[in-house]
Design goal:
Distance between the termini: 72 Å
Strand order of the largest sheet: 2-5-6-9-1-10-11-12-13
Oligomer: single chain
Shape: elongated
Largest sheet: 9 strands, mixed
Length: about 500
Amino acid sequence: MSNEKLVDYDDAVKRYDPVIGIEVHVELGTRTKMFDGAEQGFGAPANTQVTPISLGLPGTLPVTNGKAVEYAIRIGLALNCQIAEVCRFARKHYFYPDIPKNFQTSQSDEPIAFDGHLDVELEDGTMFRVEIERAHMEEDAGKNTHVGGADGRIHGADYSLVDYNRSGIPLVEIVTKPILGAGERAPEVARAYVQTLRDIFRALEVSEARMERGNVRADINVSLRPTPDSPLGTRSETKNVNSFRSIEKAVRYEVSRHAAILDAGNKVPQETRHFHEEDGTTSSGRPKSDADDYRYFPEPDLVPVAPSRQWVEDIRAALPELPAARRRRLHDAWGFADAEMRDVVNAGALDLIDATVAAETTPAAARKWWMGELSRVAKQADVALDELAITPAQVGELQSLIDAKRINDKIARQVIDGVLAGEGDPAAVVEARGLEIVSDDGPLLAAIDETLAAQPDIVEKVRGGNLGPIGAIIGAVMKATKGQADAGRVRELIIERIGA
């Protein structure tokens, strides 16, 4: 737990104007690495996906991965960027064990894409435009594992291990311009922006974009200034935040921390910070280097990248429907209210409902199950909706059983329990558990006669034209049939039997 002084967030944003900037790294899903032929893939044994180039051995020469360049252009176009006619790679110099060459091959003043923007939708439907400064290509570093230190940090560790499997994986880094005017909603804007990017990466099929695997990582810059007209304040940069919730927490914490420093009459140090998932705090990392400290110079072993205008336009023409346009289309097609659609998006249920509708289920029915019972189950199990052990096709089958009057909504909840327990598809669960609605009038009449005999007073009231108490008889029959009766048919038979 941090012992740093904090100011209440709401108080801080009343007295200071927060300015944020976000650098998002996305690992590209190419088969091989950025500059060599080593395979890349998650979970391989340490140091098995390497070549002499990955290890930075003397005399090795890199070659640019053409598919990675295509993916970078896709991203740039989706972010409304201009695509450079010619750009170059550069060497970014710094020493760390996960960089075997002692420099990272990146792009400095000549990015592949620049001057773009992305409109993001906040939870209440407000649209906020984030200006994009650049999107550039680079390679990832290896992964250090510090053994023996607290929280996996290098401080106090007995020794460190390096896995170079990740070294050289192609990345695109997307850098925003200072995000102005977000005010108290800065944490929400940061979260929505990164979430929108993640959805775009998946739609473009350039990355699995799984944040829990580090496919997408965000560095969050925060500074405060007295008023929106004041010069920008000194920023801190919280590194490698890899969940939407953590992005929001990191912004809130840093705003509160900066405000406390400024209130005390001190200067905010320009530094990197580490985010701590367990309590939502940050801690000091190292003084933040300026670009000059990296001694950038053009990479002499790589030729410039010069995508032809025809190639760029061919890539543009092949772009898929982007998430924002898709949401608008589905919103119109499904007829959901604006608030309903926002709830669907915020719950991560859009793809699930779309796939369920594709399984010949009405949008209303698909929404009912994913936003109702299944959302309740997911929340109770503390998992995401798409992690539940039930597929859109199975939800569609469940609804078809209801439409065919083989089960009702109450029984359907038991069927869901069976599917989630691994008992098979809905129809198999219905059969195995004997849940199908009783459609034979014989057993229903027997249950009705028994119930009527037990409630003569109610029978007389109904026979006299007072149909209000009939609900009690229906309920008793449904209980007797364990809910496996059509309530509408039960009502019809009761009225016939009583002669009302």
